[in-house]
Amino acid sequence: MPGLIDVHAHLDEPGRTEWEGFSSGTKAAAAGGITTLIDMPLNSEPSTVSRETLKLKTDAAKGKIFVHVGFWGGLVPENALNSTALEDLLDAGVLGLKSFMCPSGIDDFPMTNITHIQGGLSVLARYKRPLLVHAELVQESDEKEDAVSDAASYSTYLRTRPASWEQAAVRQLVSATEETRAGGSAEGAHLHIVHLSDAGSSLDLIKEAKSRGHSLTVETCPHYLAFSAEEIPDGDTRFKCSPPIRDAANREKLWEAMMGGDIDLLSSDHSPSVPELKRLDEGDFLKAWGGISSLQFVLPVTWTHGRQYSLAFEKLASLWSEKPARLAGQKLKGAIVVGNHADLAVWEPEAELELDADHPVFHKHPSISAYMGRRLSGKVVATFVSGNLVFKQGFHATAACGATILAR
After folding, report:
1. How many domains does the chain have?
2. Which of 11, 20, 131, 310 is the most buried (most CB within 10 A)?
3. How far apart, in whole angstroms, are the C-alpha atoms of residue 8 and residue 71?
4. Are 157 and 286 in contact (CB under 8 A)?
5. Is-contact 36 6, C-beta < 8 A?
């Protein structure tokens, strides 16, 4: 099939290579059939918010990447209302921008408000590149809730980030995208909501906005489709992420929305850390770093769970290749057609893999992945990047031959 394109991954280099890094992260990607990654502007140090910090990224990637890697830039308060600064970042080659509507957990990547987001859209309209948004908006009434009764219980963490946070953020974003419609002042801009977790009111707002012609798309992630809140064991902080994994009924609605086309694409949101930050010994969901480590496993996870929903190969390719390529502006990727880049994943749908200690995993810290210990179907046997065989049967090419992708 076409190589997978993951538009949402944190490789953490430069500055936090002890968390992941370009070499280990892209090896894991290749082992999972991913041929292109778009790297998030955080959690590297510094964050990618300027021409200078983008150069640090591209320099750090040289000679280390086994798949193609592009970069999102950061929309933060210091550049959001400064069109010259944003234009300089976009001219340097980022494929689009990313912002948070809640604290990101990274000091040099502060949250934006809706005015910042509107400012970003007005600049992006001229570049025809997307703005990706983490859509959670802290609600005062919920923030004051007493949620410290049992920090080892997943339900405690879940109460601290209710679906109302996503709903409030999406409501503001839908209002901001009114001007992206044909004839609007921000026509040409596009807003993409990352890692949707709430399949209730948040999704309803998105569907309605799309029907009115807003330039808006949404993704979800395999962990929201594979897991449910009810099955997360006490103290198993490997499952902590934001927005959080919600209940089984919500998971069913996410599958229904994705199979029906209301959710546009999938991404990993691979967000690793050092094991100490997951606080597995303490089992404290409130103090542990949030993020699901998943890069190598997304194809078999999607396929394993998708078969019970009659997921077809064509739909799989649309979710993981065609539509991600479109979001990232990669016209020569995402499909097997004459003239496209020869980015290919070769896999065996019926072959099973046991994610145990003997399974070769290339993430820097396999132990923090919530998928370890699972039995999955769909084994990647080979991955080609621009026609080059970079992974086969557990082994990588001797030389990293991926290229950095910059917008022109």
Report:
1. 1
2. 11
3. 10
4. yes
5. yes
Full residue range of the structural domain in which residue 16 is found: 4-405
Q: Report the percentage of the chain scoring pLDDT > 90.
A: 97
With pLDDT > 70 as the criterion, what percentage of the chain qualifies? 98
What's at 267, amino acid-wise?
S
What distance in Å separates the CA atoms of residue 51 and residue 80, rounded to the nearest whole number?
15
Amino acid (one-letter) located at 161:
R
Lay out the sheet containing 395-396: strands in order across.
Answer: 344-354, 375-385, 388-392, 395-396
Does residue 48 carry a pLDDT above 60? yes
Examine the pLDDT at 143 and tell me if it is beyond 50: no
Task: Give me the count of residues in the chain.
Answer: 408
pLDDT in tens, 149-162: 799 999 999 999 99
Q: Determine the Cα–Cα distance for residues 352 and 338; give it in Å rounded to an integer.
A: 32
pLDDT digits (tens, 9 = 90+) for 207-256: 999 999 999 999 999 999 999 999 999 999 999 999 999 999 999 999 99
C-alpha distances in Å from residue 16, one per residue of 10, 118, 225: 10, 31, 29
**C-alpha to C-alpha distance for 218 and 321, rounded to whole angstroms:** 15
Neighbours of 332 (CB within 10 A): 11
**pTM, two decimal places:** 0.97
349: its two tokens: 């749908």
